[in-house]
Write a structure and sequence with these properties.
This protein has a domain of about 45 residues. Helix content is about 60%, strand content about 0%. It is built from three helices and no strands. The longest helix has 27 residues. The protein is rod-shaped, with a radius of gyration of 24 Å.
Length: about 70
């Protein structure tokens, strides 16, 4: 009975090679969310913008930003 090997089960942890992939997916998801919310912002009329306390200039500034910012 003393001849058994010590075999430890490795727990699934994030290794450095998967961290860049996870960061990439997280960044992609954030970019897609920004695109979606900016598209919705572009569809609001003046009354809805004033309800949200957003000026038309603020809306244009936000819509002019690239998707990664």
């Amino acid at each position: 009975m003393n001849h058994l090997l010590d075999v430890s089960v490795s727990t699934p942890q994030s290794t450095p090679r998967f961290l860049w992939f996870r960061r990439l997916l997280r960044g992609l998801a954030s970019s897609l969310e920004r695109v979606r919310t900016r598209r919705l912002l572009g569809q609001l009329n003046d009354r809805e913008l004033s309800d949200l306390n957003i000026s038309p200039t603020d809306r244009l500034n936000e819509l002019d930003k690239p998707f990664w910012r």
